[in-house]
Amino acid sequence: MSESAFQSVDVAVIGAGSVGIAVAYYLATEEGVGSVALIDPLDPMSLTSAQSGENYRNWWPHPVMTAFTDHSITLMEDLDQRSGGRLNMTRGGYALVTRRRNPQDLIADLYRGYAQSDAPIRIHDHISSRYAPPCRAPWQDAPGGVDVLLDAAIIRKAFPSYAQDVATVLHIRRAGSISAQQMGQLMLERLRAQGGRLIRARVQAIARDARYRLDLEGPHGHSTLAADRVVNAAGPYLQDVGRMLGVDLPVSSVFQQKIAFEDREAAIPRDMPFTIDLDGQALYWEDEDRALLASDPATRHLTEPMPGGIHCRPDGARDGKWIKLGWAYNQTASDPHAPDPIDAQFPDTVLRGASRLHRGLMAYIGRLPRGVHHYGGYYTMTEENWPLIGPLDGQGAFVAGALSGYGSMGACAAGALCARWVTGRPLPDFAAPLSLARRTDGALMAELTRAAKGSL
Ligand SMILES: Cc1cc2nc3c(=O)[nH]c(=O)nc-3n(C[C@H](O)[C@H](O)[C@H](O)COP(=O)(O)OP(=O)(O)OC[C@H]3O[C@@H](n4cnc5c(N)ncnc54)[C@H](O)[C@@H]3O)c2cc1C
Questions:
Q1: Going edge to edge, which strands form the sheet with 373-381?
Q2: How far is CA 167 from each of CA 15, 104, 347, 357, 402, rounded to the nearest angstrom?
Q3: Ligand 1 atom nearest residue 19's Cα
Q4: What pLDDT digit, counting tens, does each position of 37-77 carry?
Q5: Which residues line ligand 1 (CB under 6 A)?
Q6: What is the CATH number of the domain that holds 8?
Q7: Cys-Cys link to 328, which of 24, 158, 256, 392 (CB 3.0-4.6 A)?
Q8: What would you report as the CA-atom Rg of the chain, rounded to the nearest whole angstrom?
Q9: What percent of the chain lies above the pLDDT cut of 90?
Q10: Which residues pair with 55 in a beta bridge?
Q11: Is pTM beyond 0.90 here?
C-alpha cells in the first residue's frame, strides 16, 4: 500500500520498539481507537528491543514500580495464555545473592516494595523450613511471593553451584524470562488485524496547527502525515522527538553490554534462576596485568572497586547449553547517534566478575569459546530511573519511554497506560508518578534520586 493512503490518522505512534508497539496495540485493541499508525524506518523490534535479555521480575524497592511491573506481568500472562504460549514465558525467579548475613536493609526493601501487594515474604532461617527450590515448571504452577534464604544448608542444597561464601539468597518468584520478540510480533499481528498500520519512515519534523503534521522521510521519499494525537516512543531518540514537539525531556542514554556463549563446561546448572550477585568486588588480576590496566585511564576502573549487579542465567531450553552474562556497571551517558561504544574488554571483565559467584566460569577466563556473542544497547533513562509515560505538551502529544533496563517486562503496562492517557479513560494509581508530573513533586524526586544512586 502506498504511503499516500495513510495521510491522516487518529494517533501516530513514533517508534516500533517494544514500547511503541505495545502503545499502538492497546490503543487499537483495548481503547477502540480506529486509526493508529506506527512509524519507524527500521524493522520493528530491531533497535534496543533486539538487545534485551528478556528477563522480568516484580521486584522493586518502591511500591509504585512494583504495582507497574506486576500489572505488566499480568498483561503478559494474559497474552501468553490467550496465544497458546507464544511468549515462551518461564518462571524460575530471580535469585539475589549476597555474602552478607541477615541483611536487614535488603529485607526492609522487600517489605517496602511489596507493601501494597499481596505477595507473601517467607523467611527461611533453619534447615527444616519448607522452601520450594527453583524448577522449570510452567509459570502457572510456580509459587508467588519471595523466599528469603538465611540458612547456609538450605542455600547449599538449592544452589550447589554458588560459591561457598554466599550467606543470603532472596528468591523473587514472580520472575523469569519471556520472548519479547514473539510478544512484539504477536501484538503487531493483532494490531494489523484491527486495521493498525506500520509506516516505514523516519519522522523528521513535527508542526502543529489544528492537528499535528508529521514530516516523514521514507524509502519512497518525503510525505506528510496528519494526526490528532502523537505518541513519542522513540527509545534512545526520545529527546530528538521531544524537541520536535517543543519539549526538552530529562533523559540520557547509557550503553550496557552482555555476552552469551555455549557453556561447554556445564558451569551453570540449567535450572538456575536468573541470578544477580549484589556485592561489589575488586577483580582479580596478576600483578603485571594490574599495573598495565592501572596505567591507562581507559582501563584504570578495572583495577578499582567495581559495583555489584553481575547477572547470569542459562539461556534457552533445558537441554541447551547457552548462557548469558551481563553487568550494567557503566554509568556514563553517551550520544546514541554516535557509533556504539562497545568495550572490547567487557567479555573478560564480566567473566572475571561472574566467576566470583559461579566458580565453574573460571574455566573460561582467557579462553572464552570462539562463538561468544558480545552485544549491547542503550538504557534510556531518567536520573531517578523511573519511566516517562503520559502527556507531553498538554495538547495532544504523549510520551512512552525511558524504560531503561526494564522495557521488555514493562512494555505491556507502559503501552496500556499510555493508551489510557491518550483516550482519557480512568487511570491506575501509578499513572501520575510515572508521568512527567512527578518532577514537580520535590520530596518524591529527592527520595527517588537518592535511591537510584544506590541501586543496580
Ligand atoms: C543490553 C540490554 C539488556 C536488556 N535486558 C532487559 C531485560 O532483561 N528485561 C527488560 O525488561 N528489559 C531489558 N532491557 C531494556 C529493554 O530492551 C528496553 O527498555 C526496551 O527495548 C526499550 O524499548 P523502546 O521501544 O523504548 O526502544 P527501542 O527498542 O529502541 O525502539 C525505539 C524505536 O524508535 C524508532 N525511532 C527513533 N526515532 C524515530 C523517528 N524520528 N522516527 C521514527 N522512528 C524513530 C527507532 O528506530 C526504534 O526502532 C535491556 C536493554 C539492554 C540494552
A1: 121-124, 146-149, 168-172, 94-98, 274-277, 310-314, 322-326, 252-262, 373-381
A2: 44, 13, 27, 12, 35
A3: 25
A4: 999 999 999 999 999 999 999 999 999 999 999 999 999 99
A5: 14-20, 39-42, 47-49, 51-56, 202-203, 233-237, 240-241, 256, 258, 376-379, 401, 403-409
A6: 3.50.50.60
A7: 256
A8: 23
A9: 89
A10: 177
A11: yes
| CA distances in angstroms from 69 to 14, 150, 403, 430, listed in the order given | 23, 27, 11, 10
Mutate to test the pocket of ligand 1, among 315, 403, 404, 412 (most ligand atoms within 8 A of CB): 403
Instruction: Say which DSSP state 306 is in.
Output: B
Closest approach atom of ligand 1 to CA 256: 1
Range of the domain at 220: 3-54+180-251+383-453
Task: Please list, in sequence order, all residues whose beta carbon lies within 8 angstroms of the beta carbon of residue 267, skipping any fewer than 6 positions away.
Answer: 161, 323, 358, 359, 360, 361, 363, 364
**Domain end among 332, 358, 381:** 381
Question: Same domain for 375 and 387?
Answer: no
Q: How far is 433 from 431, CA to CA, in rounded Å?
A: 6
Q: Which three cell numbers stand for residue 411?
A: 512494555
DSSP letters, 162-189, are: B-TT--EEEEESSEEE--HHHHHHHHHH
Cell of 244: 520536535
